[in-house]
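Lab meeting minutes (informal)
Scribe: AK
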Amino acid sequence: MGMDEDSCIGLLCKDDQPVFTIVAEQLRDAGLAVQFFDPRAELSSIQIDDLSLLVNKQVFPQILPGLRYARQTETPLWNNLPATIAFSSRLIGLTALEAVGFRTPPVRFEKPEGEYVAKDFLFGMALPNSTRVGISIKS
């Protein structure tokens, strides 16, 4: 994959994400164009066709058709598409990691005792306040 002054790298993450903001700045300093895309919004074929590389930090269901399109049209993807699709679901990811021997936190659908981290969304859809998916934090 050749990069030149006409190359544009697409980053699927918020434009204030600390690490990728620095990466974008360094790429721009090297003469490359960088464009941030909302990871929760669909990408059009026109947006993808203008890219030399597409990098995803986060994956939400809305972006999967765009990633598939990029792969079909040979726009290079930084991340492996099949793995990205498989691990776009945390539950699938945890199950896969557990299957190959990694220690993973238990998955519950009821509020655990003590401090925990909860997500208010599942596959990009808001859940009622009484329904949260949580992972316990244990030291």
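Next up, CB showed the second protein from the same session:
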Amino acid sequence: MTPVGLWQDEDGDLHEIRRRPHGYVVLCTTPEGDAFEVRDVRWRADRLKWTLIIPDGLGDADLHRSYETVRIELHRLTVRWKSSAGEGEETFTRVSA
């Protein structure tokens, strides 16, 4: 199973994962429609990894949060995340394929 589809995280942000000829692309938007910058999308050993750049909004350093897929199911995507603010696991819910 591949992670292709539209996924909603626990904060309500949408992560759209698309297949490309030589890998994947990830797009991420807030519920209000604001887009986050996504960098370093890689597919290795059946795991998709990407880094989300979350603007600080106060002029300080932006937060870089890295994601890695842990488990891909039909309607759930479990990811491990890591940033300077901490680390953990989160379950995304499929919005559409």
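CB comment: The chain has no helices and eight strands.
No objections, moving on.
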